[in-house]
Design brief:
The chain is mainly alpha-helical and about 50 residues long. It contains two helices and no strands. It has helices spanning about 10-35, 40-50.
Length: about 50
């Protein structure tokens, strides 16, 4: 009896490649913004909302 080799369908390989491309592009665009400190006024508003 022969066993069949299973390979990933081509669409899942394409999806994985697209996911990598998208992740890299988003990091390139938004990493600098994500590293910026949160303004004190926004932190104050968040804390006030938590207390409610």
């Amino acid at each position: 009896m022969r066993t069949r080799r299973t390979r990933e369908p081509k669409s899942s390989v394409s999806d994985a490649a697209f996911d990598i491309w998208l992740r890299r592009g988003l990091h390139r665009m938004f990493d600098d913004v994500a590293r910026e400190p949160i303004p004190p006024e926004l932190l104050r508003l968040i804390e006030e909302d938590r207390k409610k």
